[in-house]
Each structure stands twice: as C-alpha cells, then as structure tokens.
Amino acid sequence: MSRKRTENGSESGPATSHVPVDRFGFLKQEHANSPERFSKSKTTSSTDHDREERKVRKWRKMIGVGGSDWKHYVRRKPNVVRRRIRKGIPDCLRGLVWQLISGSRDLLLMNPGVYEQLVIYETSASELDIIRDISRTFPSHVFFQKRHGPGQRSLYNVLKAYSVYDRDVGYVQGMGFIAGLLLLYMSEEDAFWLLVALLKGAVHAPMEGLYHAGLPLVQQYLFQLESLVKELIPKLGEHFTQEMINPSMYASQWFITVFSYSFPFPLALRIWDVFLSEVKLPFEKLIHALKTFPEDAMNPDTLLPLAYSIKVSKRLEELTLEYQKTNAKPVQP
Amino acid sequence: MAGYRADEEYDYLFKLVLIGDSGVGKSNLLSRFTKNEFNLESKSTIGVEFATKTTKVEGKVVKAQIWDTAGQERYRAITSAYYRGAVGALLIYDVTRHATFENAARWLRELRGHTDPNIVVMLIGNKCDLRHLVAVKTEEAKAFAERESLYFMETSALDATNVENAFTEVLTQIHKIVSKRSVDGGGESADLPGKGETINVKEDGSVLKRMGCCSN
C-alpha cells in the first residue's frame, strides 16, 4: 500500500529517472520545502542506522500485523505511545500509523465501495476548480510533477470524491496540499478516508470549519494565535501591533493547509504525527518558532522538544470560548 | 522581518492589491514585477502573500507594497481585509478564459465596497502571449474599462510584456493624485493606516510621506 520512496536521492524517483530528489521526493534544486538545511543526518552513520532499526522494530511490535495490536497497546500504555509519537513516527510506518490514530482505518472498513462510487459515478460542481489547482499542488515533488501522471490523477480523484461527499464544503484551495501530503504516504482510498476523518471528526473534533463559508475555524485559530503571542511574547506582540502585522498575513496558509503548504517537509511531517494523535494544532510550536526565529526555528529536532515545554492548552480552551462568545455565529461543534 | 530597517529611504509608500479569479496569473505578475521571475510550476496562492518593490516615479522614490490574494470565492472572508488602505488595485483576468473577464464586474463591486472612491484601478488582461487562444477581445475589455473609468492594459507575465508598464502607470497615477493633494495643501499624517480606519486618498495615511522631504 505505501509507495516506495527514494533514499537520499541516489536512486531513481518513481516518475522521472534522473532528476536529483531529496529523501522525501522533492526536486533538489527547489529550495521551498527542501529539508536539506534542516535535516541533521546528512551522512547517516551506522549507529544512527542501528538506532533507526531499533525504533522501527519497537514500532512494529506496538502496531502488530496490519495494526491488529494497536488499539490494545494504546489502551494499555497511552503514555508510551504518546512519547514515541512525539519523537517522530518512523517514515516507513507513517502512513499506517496516521490511519490508525486518526480513526480513518475504521471509516474505511465501515464504508466498503463508497469511495469508488464517489470517484466513478458522481459529478462535482468543483471539477474545473480542482483541475486548475492540480498542477499547482507540490509542483516540485516527483510524484505530482508529471502532467496527468499517477500522482495528479490520484490527487484529482481524492479531491473530487470529497467535494461530492460533502457538497457544503465542496472544494476549497488548500485542501489539495493536505490530500497531497497524505497521498505520499498511502493509497487514494486511504487518503480520502483520512481527509474525511479529519474534516468530519472521527476520533476528535471536526475541522471542516477550516473550509466552510467565512472560514470560521481559520478565524478562530488566528484569534487564538494573536492572543497567545500577545500574552506569551509581549515584546513581539507589541512589535507586530506597531507594524500592523496581524496573523492573517503570515498564518492563514499555515492553518488552511495544516502546515503542509510552506513548512519544511520534515517539520510538517513531525507536526502531523503529533497533530493527528493529540488532536490539536501545534500552537506551542508556533509560539516557540516565533520566539526563536530565525535560528534553528525550523529544525524539527530542536523545535519540537522545546515546544512541548510551553503550556497553552488551558488558555487555548478559554480563548476558544471567548472567541465563540464574541462571534454571533459560533464555530460548528 | 529579519534585517528590517525602519529608516529605509523612500518618499512614498503605496499599498496595492492584486485581485481577480483563481489562476489568472496574479502571483506571476507580482513575481515578474518585483523579482523579474516567472514560474510555470508555481503553487496556488493560499490566503495572502505580499512583496515590495521600490521604484522611481516622476523623480520620487516610491515603495510599492503589493498584496497578492487567493482568488477563490471562499477566501473573500480573509482577503477582503486587505483592500483596506489600498490606494491602487490591479484587477486581473485571463484573456483565454472569458468567464474570468465576466467576473471582473463582481470583483470591482467588491473592491469599491471596501476602498476609497479615489482608488486607482487598472484592468489587466493577462496571458496575452497565448495569441491563438484569446477569448476576450481587446475592444470588449477596453469598452468595459471606459465605462467603469478604469485604466486598461494587456500583459504577459510569461514574456514580461507590459508588466513593468502596468505597475508603473498605476503608481504614477497614484502619485499624481497625491502630489496634487500636496499642492492643494491638504493636511496629511505620516502614519500608517490604523485598523478599521477608512482610507481616503485625499487625506490618507497609507500614502505615506517619508522624511518630510516633500512636504511643503
């Protein structure tokens, strides 16, 4: 199910044969999203390799065959699972684990044949809009680069299926980056159900408010971020106010695409690991990144551990309520 | 904002917005003007982006702060906030897609609902390099522009046709309004526009005068 990815760019990519790509499949000459600057292990030593192997073995044991032991393990040792996820899910198991922790695997099993039906038989009012954005989604990734290639076709199918599945939301620019990220780790049908789990809420609160008319959830997150910056980094908050920088200028695209649009790819992946399991957006990380910017702010191994030390959960809940109170139309629960 | 210098020297700061349907080439027009770059494989714009370019207009140093907005209808909730304080706008359509031209009227209404009546607006037919695919006749667009008192140009971000001209023309027209205002002796403040403030090109704050070098 999971696609083979190239290691360190030395082997050939799936779509084009002699283009140098990084270990995630992005073209090397592209600087946007390129993890080069941020990945520590440029030359993987044998001890690193051993450590990685051990980590994968532990994870396999925890998951069981095809995910059979997962639920049991999570129930018995939630803290171990949480700690391991925070350290980063091994890349080779990421797709499967994401499906397990988001609850999308269950949705898939409960709805056999539904995805195929949506793709093949239904038509969507958003088809032209989707097509217009297909070649503009991760254009520097080998999988999505080829016009009408398998990557672009899968992306189209998932987005079209979703726009039919939820006609209120339809298609909104930005969803493509989420679907694209998922498609690098799982099949079309799996990616579709993960998108459903995320937006409709399988094990956690639905996030479809990101894409509803008026973008209510985006507005709420922007409000929360602005409040947190003012409270936790007052000097920066003051500076932003003076220069009339409001968070919609720099953070709209972070929220609309759940960090998949412009963050360095390895960081986006680590954020997704935690985001899917802990069911909340990484406001701690944003605050921390804004605090330490620019040194090291985008290196996942530096940013994430430090970010966990910043406690914002309680304040976030209060701000959610505050936002909903001051806005006539509350965010859909 | 690393390396930002508050004392960067310019006479005026003009805020412009780029609006128009998704995929008409707003981001590429912006990168062609500010960086002389064009990218055939660019990402869709999500939310807003901005870039600046400092240029000379009628002997004055003008810094253009240009906001590039996502074109999809659903984004209006976020992007319309960026109209506030704009003194110029480029309303862009794609000459190969007639629907994007038909939507220009709606974009214009939307823009006028959020900005000062004196805002300088230029209608732009982009992608004019695709001659064999043209679906919007120059005459048709020109007539619309005249009816709505807009400036008009056809451009190609790909081969750079008229891109510099279009932006320069808009900046020049804004400067004309501003300097006329100066001669008239209208009072102006040197502040950036505040939140929620209505910007008037005649007595605005967003048309920034710097260093007092041209106030009289």
TrEMBL record, chain A:
<dbReference type="InterPro" id="IPR050302">
    <property type="entry name" value="Rab_GAP_TBC_domain"/>
</dbReference>
<protein>
    <submittedName>
        <fullName>Ypt/Rab-GAP domain of gyp1p superfamily protein</fullName>
    </submittedName>
</protein>
<feature type="compositionally biased region" description="Basic and acidic residues">
    <location>
        <begin position="28"/>
        <end position="39"/>
    </location>
</feature>
<dbReference type="InterPro" id="IPR000195">
    <property type="entry name" value="Rab-GAP-TBC_dom"/>
</dbReference>
<keyword id="KW-0343">GTPase activation</keyword>
<dbReference type="GO" id="GO:0005096">
    <property type="term" value="F:GTPase activator activity"/>
</dbReference>
<feature type="region of interest" description="Disordered">
    <location>
        <begin position="1"/>
        <end position="55"/>
    </location>
</feature>
<dbReference type="Pfam" id="PF00566">
    <property type="entry name" value="RabGAP-TBC"/>
</dbReference>
<feature type="domain" description="Rab-GAP TBC">
    <location>
        <begin position="88"/>
        <end position="279"/>
    </location>
</feature>
<dbReference type="InterPro" id="IPR035969">
    <property type="entry name" value="Rab-GAP_TBC_sf"/>
</dbReference>
